[in-house]
Task: inverse folding
């Protein structure tokens, strides 16, 4: 999404709110864009930022061709600062560095923008330091915070931002887009359950690490079914070494969640809803014999809690160990 008209097709309400502010020259000093992965948070943040610096804006649309627009798109504009998690969280030292930057005048104008990705990962100390910017807003300074988990952001930050809710994208239309561009039907269904971003979907579908992740989930289900006494050995010898980064750990849990949902769908005779397994996969019947419907519901709840624990920076090895114990019952 590179224009507000494209955003309007996907996020009509968010587009209307922000573009009305642009037309009235009433851009907020702080935005909190909250929505699932792939709903357009970064694209909207870039459009807001380009609109502030664009040299040849056409109405509300940045030109995308001027020097300012190109440098913002490439992440190289000196007055636009991106803050991303350092490991599992955004740390206080990153905010201190940002504050030092903001003591200087803008290099090319008096405007400054800072964009915080994964704002829910701000440590408490870092979040409290950010409040200084939000409590003493400068007309020339814009904060844009992006999050998939707004409930983890402290209320004092939320109350000082204009909160923009981004709606989940339609998975059926997304799957159609994927198949129209050449992706196999079953792969398109799985990708539609994992992401709403076309580029990410094709990258994942061609990624050998992702293929290994899918295989590890199948092997974990098999181990639970056939050799439950070996599950902890499998977790430490195969799972933990593969899922090292936070995004990989979340991806592993997402895949496990979809696999367990499919086993439950098989139980109740709703094979059409399955996403992870093929309906004729022999593992489904075996897994259904090992996991009752009640046990599967408990497992799904445990996986969701594990995902929340990761978001809260609980040690990932401890998270998967606790999840394993809960699934084993």
Result:
């Amino acid at each position: 999404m590179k224009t507000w008209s494209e955003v309007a097709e996907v996020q009509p309400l968010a587009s209307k709110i922000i573009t009305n502010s642009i037309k009235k020259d009433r851009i907020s000093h702080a935005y909190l864009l909250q929505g699932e992965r792939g709903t357009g948070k970064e694209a909207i943040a870039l459009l807001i930022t380009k609109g502030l610096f664009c040299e040849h804006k056409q109405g509300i649309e940045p030109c995308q061709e001027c020097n300012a627009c190109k440098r913002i798109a490439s992440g190289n504009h000196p007055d636009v600062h991106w803050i991303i998690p350092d490991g599992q969280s955004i740390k206080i030292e990153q905010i201190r560095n940002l504050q030092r930057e903001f003591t200087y005048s803008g290099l090319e104008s008096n405007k400054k923008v800072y964009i915080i990705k994964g704002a829910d990962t701000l440590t408490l100390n870092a979040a409290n330091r950010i409040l200084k910017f939000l409590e003493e807003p400068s007309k020339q300074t814009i904060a844009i915070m992006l999050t998939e988990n707004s409930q983890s952001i402290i209320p004092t930050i939320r109350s000082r931002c204009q909160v923009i809710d981004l709606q989940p994208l339609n998975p059926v239309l997304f799957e159609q887009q994927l198949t129209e561009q050449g992706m196999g039907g079953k792969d398109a269904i799985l990708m539609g359950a994992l992401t709403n971003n076309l580029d990410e979907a094709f990258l994942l579908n061609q990624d050998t690490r992702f293929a290994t992740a899918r295989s590890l989930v199948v092997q974990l289900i098999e181990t639970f079914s056939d050799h439950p006494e070996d599950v902890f050995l499998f977790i430490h010898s195969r799972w933990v070494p593969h899922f090292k980064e936070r995004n990989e750990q979340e991806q592993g849990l997402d895949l496990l969640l979809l696999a367990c949902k499919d086993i439950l769908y098989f139980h109740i005779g709703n094979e059409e809803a399955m996403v992870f397994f093929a309906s004729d996969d022999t593992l489904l019947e075996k897994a259904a014999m090992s996991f009752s419907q009640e046990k599967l519901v408990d497992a799904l709840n445990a996986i969701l809690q594990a995902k929340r624990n990761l978001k809260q920076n609980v040690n990932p090895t401890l998270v998967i160990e606790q999840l394993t114990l809960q699934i084993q019952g």
About this structure: The mean pLDDT is 91. The beta strands are 30-34, 80-83, 112-116, 141-147, 162-165. The two ends are 45 Å apart (CA to CA).
